[in-house]
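hiii, so i know i said id send this last week but things got crazy w the move. better late than never?? heres the sequnce for the chain we talked about at the cafe, plus the structure i predicted for it. fair warning i was half asleep when i ran it
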Amino acid sequence: MSIERKSLRNTKQRQLVLDTVRASTDHPVADTIYERARECDPSISKGTVYRNLNLLSELGEIRKLPMPFGADHYDFNLEKHYHFICRRCCKVADAGIPYEEKLNEADTGLPGYITEWHRLILIGLCDECSEIERSK
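okay and structure toks below
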């Protein structure tokens, strides 16, 4: 389903959810965004936050990051880039690796398939969790 931006009115709650994601540098999950949004508007409901996160990601205002384990995370950075996810605490961070457009031209071995973009998630331990592992 394609959403016509012109037919949507910008609500105060949608703007709050968008502003909350844009102010985050930690790739928060929906529950975290809800808690942060409630600090500005205690009357906002969890359902409103979830609906607006889905809508904003469909509109291309934010990026929804489906994860291989744990909840989906959200990112304000719409530039193509890679992510790192901690397998222990599920923290997500931008990986400092340049996006490789050449991978979109790779032969998939699937006749008729065309790669439009790719996604890379590096999985391991964040600095805090690796410190805990080392201290064991």
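btw The two ends are 50 Å apart (CA to CA). thought thatd interest u
miss u guys!!
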